[in-house]
Each structure stands twice: as structure tokens, then as C-alpha cells.
Amino acid sequence: NCKSYLARSLLKKSRENMILALELYNRPSLENRLDAFVLLFCTAWEQLLKAVLIERDGEDSIFEDQEIKGRQKETISLRKALEKMYEGKDAKRRNLERIKYYRDKATHLLMPELQLLISRVFQSGVLNYAEEFELFAEQPFIDSAGGGLMTLVGDFRDPICGGQTAIIVILPPYMGIAKNQPEMGQSPIIT
Length: 191
Fold this sequence. Notes:
Blueprint lengths: L4 H21 L7 H25 L20 H8 L5 H18 L6 H23 L33 H9 L12
């Protein structure tokens, strides 16, 4: 449905990158699968947002205003694309900014190992992506005949622990990290 060839190409790459992100997330043999997931997840979102911006505002809307002599014109960052697409308090934007934070950690140093703690944020991000993709492309992101690709988080309650939150099992090695994460304050944590 895209009028622009560039927007169509970005949309196709975006979908491929999100599928690859989910495939890597679900590959238990990879130790750095969360790093790979956040890198590809953010790339997929950036490409989707740029496709939407092109169709809405024209191709120039995804390029930086300043051109550096001798270099190809650069496109806007994910952060700038988010600013153009969503209001500051928008839930999708806040979710993406959280995951972008982990992408930056994975890119520039190390991403904390918080898989069970952050998986709900990832889950929301994937569901948000699927919704935005379908709204824009007028087709589902993943064929509905196929199974889900991301392990969805249900309830952390453990019947063995008398119905208490089982997250306590993973907290001791990550307690310092978990206390400093904004999303941790929204989850029930038993110490």
C-alpha cells in the first residue's frame, strides 16, 4: 500500500528484522540472544516508523537537516522518529524507549541479564509492533496460521511457594540491577 518505493523497502526489511529478532529470542542455545533481540527489535521499529513517516510527511522527513560534506545524507535516529510519531507520554513510545535503553547497553557495553524481569516489556513491544504494522500495512505482521514466535509471559506465581511470586528465585544475583531498573518498580518483587 506504500506509494514510496523507499517506504515499501523499509516496511519489508522491518518485518524481516522483527521476525529474525523473535527467532533469535526463542533460540535457547544462544547466550547473547537478548542482545541480538534488542538490536534487531529496535532496527525493525526504526524502519517501520520511517516507512510511516515517509508516507505521512514525505521522504525528506526521515533525513537529518544538516548534510556533512563528503558523506551521504544521514537518516534520523530512532529517538527522533519516536518524537515525530508519538507524544511524550504515549505508552508505545515509553515501551520503545525502555527497550532502546537496553539496545544502547548491548551496543556500547553490556546489557544486564534480566530476561525474566524484562520479558513483559519485550512482549508489549512485540504486540505494539504487530498492531502498528497491521495498521500501516493493512496486513498482519505474522501469518495467523503460524504459531506465536515469542514465549508469552503469563503469571510468575509458583504453586510450590504457596502462590507467591516465583521471581524471588532470580533476584539474588541481580538484586542490585533490579532495584535500579524503572520497570522493576511496577512488578511485584518479593525479597
